[in-house]
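Z., the sequence and structure:
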Amino acid sequence: MQKKQIIVVVIVFAIMGYLFFLPVKGIVKHKEADGHTNSAAPARQAANVTVEMVSAAAKVTIGPALSAQINDAENQLKNTSDEAAKLALQKKLAKQWDDVNQPAPAAFYYQAIAGTENTFDDWSIAGTHFNDAFKLTQDTAAQPAFVNNAIACFKNATKLKPEDLSAKTGLGIAYVNQTSLGITDPDGGSPMQGIMLLLDVVKQDPNNRNANLSLGLFAMKSGQYQKAVQRFKSIIAQKPEVEPYFYLAESYKQLGMKKEAIEAYQKCKDMMPDAAFDQRIDEYIKELKN
């Protein structure tokens, strides 16, 4: 299976866990937000999470052989005082972590690069990686740091390009994630602000994939599965992909639309020829048929 397909499989199942383990207490519907809402959890304090900490955890996942290559670059970075050499090594490490699908350590290196070069692309890439790290991690102690860093990065990106829709989308997602942890943003970020940012993006660009996908996921979380179906179908109409098909199937299942759910699950299987993934999908289909 191609690396891109592996990433999709990991993301799909990680997000399903992330989505349905978010707290649901206190969800309310707001007409002005088109029903896409979320609620705050008990507040978590942001721990002092460092690149060394997340790198150590990631190395357990990737194994000793790949870790050895990263260790070499890390040691070079520690032992150099030359700023140009540091920047080059940070870029090398960011790519190395990207190559093994570990967004958390990559995010910290992209953030360091952005701090030096201060370009829109660098801040946006760093923010996206922190959002991905938040989505994929099971480390609840690290989540507040990931989401706070994502917000900081996207704020810097939007300062450089205020009208860029990708940065607005990333910031909107991060605001909603932040409030799910019960964290109050000092500049007034909130789930409603996040949702409104995403709605503004799709108003300007109705086919924006990331904004529609996120709004669909948040609609699922608030139990508004019909709205979620509309979001995922709009993405699929542009380009059929496994991820929106999977969420479409889940939404149909929650609506009691078994036939449609089975058809969407089958599309997932057709597009993702992986034995483990197919086995899981077969279990879902069997459950619906019984």
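The chain is about 75% helix and 0% strand. Residues 17 and 136 are 9 Å apart (CA to CA).

Let me know what you think.
H.
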